[in-house]
Amino acid sequence: MIENNIKVRKANMSDLPAIYRFICELEDEVLDYKQFQQIFEENLHNPNWLYVLAEDETEGIGFISLHTHKLLHHNGLVAEIQEFYTSKKSRGKGVGRLLMNYVINSAQSQNVKSIEVTSNKKRAENIKVYESLGFKLTHNKFTL
């Protein structure tokens, strides 16, 4: 069920407090605000980054980010969803689908070779969400 009063739009600097809160909740960690602000502002001005906010009539309720870059092994442009969050009160209401559709449409308009998303193993429930949105589990990611 998608509620009619949800608006999805490109984020701007005034959205910083809400997005900071979302990412801290997503990571279950309090991040350094000044450093977060610096990164957020820098990426807002980078054409390879897209930050998108979902909001209801009163507040921000979701966020997604998309990063595009050219990769040799894809022989072209690839889009990666880096952060994806919907507030607890908004889950199951179609907010995530609206956010995902926004960035997928943006990526496809750039003729990307693929759209990728990675999820932390501690968020195992996200695999079902991504699969319901059309993603296929095809790779493993290793970090150091």
Task: Outline the structure in words.
With 144 residues, this protein is an alpha+beta fold. 33% of the residues lie in helices and 26% in strands. The chain contains four helices and five strands, in the order E-H-H-E-E-E-H-E-H. The chain has helices spanning 16-27, 33-44, 95-109, 125-132, and strands at residues 7-10, 49-55, 60-71, 76-86, 114-117. The protein has a five-stranded mixed beta sheet. The protein is globular, with a radius of gyration of 15 Å. The model has no long low-confidence stretch (mean pLDDT 90).
Feature tags:
144 residues, alpha+beta, five-stranded mixed sheet, 4 helices, 5 strands, globular
Topology:
Layout: E1 7-10, H1 16-27, H2 33-44, E2 49-55, E3 60-71, E4 76-86, H3 95-109, E5 114-117, H4 125-132
Parallel strand pairs: 4-5
Antiparallel strand pairs: 1-2, 2-3, 3-4
Along the chain, the helix and strand elements come as EHHEEEHEH
Helical segment count: 4
Query: Which residues form runs of ≥5 with pLDDT under 50?
Result: none
Tell me, what's the shape?
Answer: globular
Strand order of the largest sheet: 1-2-3-4-5
Q: Mean of residue pLDDT?
A: 90
Can you summarize the main beta sheet? Answer: 5 strands, mixed
The helicity comes to 25-40%
Give the termini distance in whole angstroms.
Answer: 40 Å
Based on secondary structure, the structural category is alpha+beta
Strand content: 25-35%
Number of strands: 5
| Cα-based radius of gyration, to the nearest Å | 15 Å
Task: Give a quick summary of the entry.
The protein is of the alpha+beta class.
